[in-house]
Structure formats: structure tokens, C-alpha cells
Amino acid sequence: MNNIIKVGMADYKTCLSPDGLTTLGLGSCVGVAVRDPIKKIGGLAHVMLPDSTIFRTGNINVAKFADTAIPALVEEMKKLGANTGNLTAKIAGGATMFAFQNKSELVRVGDHNVEAAKKALEKLKIRIIAEDTGDSYGRTVIFLPETGDYIIRAVGKEEKII
Amino acid sequence: MSDISLEKVTEQYYDVLKEIGNIGAGNAMTALSQMIQCKVDMKVPQVRLLGFDEIGTLMGGEEQLMVGIYLAVEGDVTGSIMFLLKQESAKHLVNKLMMGMGSPGRPDLDEMELSAMQEVSNIITGAYLNSLSTLTNLTIYPSPPAVTVDMAGAILSVPAIEFGTMGDNILLIQTQFYDETQIDGYFILIPDLKSYEKILKALGIM
Questions:
Q1: What's the number of domains chain A is made of?
Q2: What are the chain B neighbours of A109 within 8 Å (beta carbons)?
Q3: Domain holding A39: CATH number?
Q4: The complex's ipTM?
Q5: Residue B18: which residues within 8 A CB-CB, separation 6 or more?
Q6: Which CATH number fits domain B6-202: 3.20.20.120, 3.30.10.20, 3.30.70.330, 3.40.1550.10?
Q7: pLDDT digits (tens, 9 = 90+) for A94-146
Q8: pTM to 2 decimals?
Q9: Active site (annotated) includes residue A15
Q10: Which residue, among A55, A34, A54, has the nearest Cα to A150 in the 3D structure?
Q11: Measured between beta carbons, which residues in chain B are less than 8 angstroms from residue A138?
């Protein structure tokens, strides 16, 4: 069995095939999986919030925000030898966990996270080839850069691969 | 906007929160024991400030099945509150409440049990917020609760994101209570920053 590296909340990690990456229990957060299909290098970011620019404080955790985590992840992948022109992405998560309507912006944060992830990927000219986002349930994801499979598990649902 | 950050919260504030947690959880347990007509004991709650990664581990892993109850709070204090417990504990509680009319044979909660759980959570969170309101003299109005059953990590992403706008930790109040089995319940109080200041001022700390 190969190593499956765990990525925590507000974190990102990279790996080389045959290793894989996983993050458990994605709720409103988004799991952004990036792959260089030729060099078989993978990266997975577990982003919590869409936009770092709304925070005034200087010292931010770049892995927390879609707009900063994705470029940082791609940089890490480049260090492993990934070629930016090859990269493709798959995204999952961004659920609305509670059906309740509140005035707060944060309730729709799942949707905002998905939009922000797409925007950040577009900015880096990385094509999104699959997604499983939104809805109201949590997801555990496993990303295998060897095949590009992005395995999604949810409670009471059949496993799917996108 | 104030410069309060959770990391700077003082020792004294922890004590206050613990006390609120204690009184609140105490009231909640009294209400609960009346509801299920059974003696319920509890331990002194623990107040913890945890990193995003630690919190899932505390509850038995990110994939542990939990029941999460989430409600918005309005009035002088604005924000939200979450109450979590393991699915099996929730199952046990509602089956007591429903006097055996639930479906104890299956592991998950059916619709009726979920609705009963919503009622239990209403009482628990209501009693908790009442204590906070009485102690601070601030008005606090809770919204009707929303209930979900899912992986701990997924449910916790909701408060984590709200705390994420303030820092990298979550403030959690852990209560343990017993009838004949031990039940771990977790309160997560998520006031916005302005409300933190109000609560602290009302308690004479700031």
C-alpha cells in the first residue's frame, strides 16, 4: 500500500505518485486537487475561506484562503518539478451544512469558497476537469495523482470517483 | 472594530466562560432530566481553545458520526451557537424521550427521532443561553435550531469557518453528563467580535 498523506483543515500538501493525498470530513470547506498528469505530481489544499484580502491583519495563514492557498500549493508543486502548463484541477466540498437561513454571509460560505477556488484556478490558467460541490453533506476525499482519481465518500452514499 | 483576538483571551475570561458553561449546562441538564424523567449527573465543564486539527480528534476523529445542532443568536449578542454529540448518544437520548417509540434497532436516526432531537437541543441550548443572558443582563434571542447528522469534520467546518475569520482556534465547552451511560456534549459559542466585547464588559472584565 502506498502512502496516503493527510491534509488537515486550512492546510495543503503535495505528493509524488504512487503516494496519494486525503482530507477527512470536508464540510463547507473546499478540497482543491491539482495534478500534473505527465509528471504525476499531486497537490491538495483544504481551504476554509474565500478571500484573504478582507482581513487587515498582516500575519495570515495562507493555507486558509482560496486566493492564497492555491497559488502557494502550485508553487510547492513546481518545486517538485511540476510544469504549470500541464496542470489540471478537480474540486470537491463547499456544502451548506445547515439548512437554516440567517442573514449572515457566512452561511453561504460553501458557495463562496467554490467560486473563489474557481477564480484562483482560472487566474493561474489551470483547467477544472471535474467537480463535486455544493449540496448539504460532508465529504471525505482521496486524491491519487497516478490516475488522477478523486475519490469522494459521504455518509450513507455510495463512493464516487470523479 | 476591536482588536480582541481569541489567542489573547485571558485566564480570567476562561474562568468566566467555564462558570457560564457550568451554570448553563447545569440548567440544561435539569431541563433534560425533567424531559426524560430520569436523573442526569454532570461533570464540571471544560473550556478549551483548540486548533482546527485538534478538535476533530477530541471528538473521536473527523469521520466520527455526530449530530450537530446549530442556531443563530440575535439581540444584544449576535452570532451563533452549536451543540454536538455523538450519533449513538443522541439515539440513546431521544429513545428515552420517546419512551421506546423510536427505532432503537437501527444505528441512524429516523425522521421522528431527528425531530425529537431538535426538541432536546432546543431545551439544552435554550437553558444555556438563558444563563448567559441572566449573568450578563444582555438580551439573547435564539433562532429555531437546525439539525444535521454528518461527519464531525464536516459539521465543525461551520464554526471553524466562523472562528477562522478571527483566528486559527475554536473555543469549545465540553460537558460530560450521565444517566446510565456517559454522554459527551460539546457547546461551541460563536459570538461575533463585537459581542465578545459586550459579554466581557457586561461581566465587568473589560
A1: 1
A2: 161
A3: 3.30.1330.200
A4: 0.88
A5: B44, B45, B46, B47, B173
A6: 3.40.1550.10
A7: 999 887 644 455 558 889 999 999 999 999 999 999 999 998 899 999 999 99
A8: 0.86
A9: no
A10: A34
A11: 150-151, 153-155, 157
